[in-house]
Amino acid sequence: MAASPSSSFHSFLHSNSAEAVAMGLLKQFEGMQLPAASELEWLVPERDAPQKLLPIPDSVPISPDDGEHADIYKLRIRVRGNLEWAPPRPQIIFNIHPAPTRKVTVAKQNYRCAGCGIRTDPDYIKRMRYCEYLGKYFCQCCHENAQMVIPGRILRKWDFGKYYVSNFSKDLLSKIWSDPLFNVQDINASLYRKVKPLNQVRLLRIQLYHMKNMFKTCRLAKTLLDAFDSVPGHLTEDLHLYSLNDLSATKKGELAPRLAELFKAGTLHVEKCMLCQAKGFICEFCQNEEDIIFPFELNKCQTCEECKACYHRACFRTGRCPKCERLQARREMLAKQSMEADLSDYEEQGGEEEPAATAAT
What we know:
single chain, mainly alpha, two-stranded antiparallel sheet, 8 strands, 7% strand
């Protein structure tokens, strides 16, 4: 017995075929004006269909130089890569790459451009261009001989020369130019000893760091705090973080005078402000009450690493900080009192249990 046309149409609508989905969508818009083709891409915004929820195909990744799919790649579709190549990813590199050996490096790249993945015949690898930042070879389309400073060379050798980089590296270095990503103390602390202008900036930043902490609790220093905010926050709040822009300004001699001007304004405020004067320290070694010292006075002040108390540099003796000794004595006294209180409670409980045991007998 043949199925009726209505029942066949009903089963068709409930199938999972592409035609059924399309018919279902048309039925939803029945009686309404259909959107223009240019508006269809906005019907489901990306935030409503995140990539992680979409199915990932099980097929083998497609090679960029596969002739069968050449038309797809003309559309410049972003791809994740294949079994032999993956597109470069943003990364911060602190080290200098060893001198490249073109033949060996290109062979490690499977004779593919590190940028787009296009395969190069071994006879033509001399045409590929080396990126000093990523340490890989690129085709001439992905490497247009742009020149940039290399973070690793600055941090290791204080070398601000411009080197050839790929288009990808140029864009990345331009984007992070003003971002405080480089901790000189962790990456190469010896650079402070080797580069005097950098060490000068370091000392100024330590002084401004202590000053800013003091001014945050001074109601008369609001205008001065606004002046501190005129420089990037990390320069007065994190002692060793630098951006490429900061390092370049240090090399040119532009950063130190700017910080020194802030320090001079802060020093004048402290001298005249009674609230800030009250936050100073009296050296407990010499007990000179006429000479108030502050943590930012690095030339004459020594700060205890443990308790952060300040003393005259000439008076301070390592391993014997009066404030630390007081704190230690207080801790020992409190521990002794706590032990005596526990022992007293234990004896009282024992005294109560003994009569109770005697009455029971």
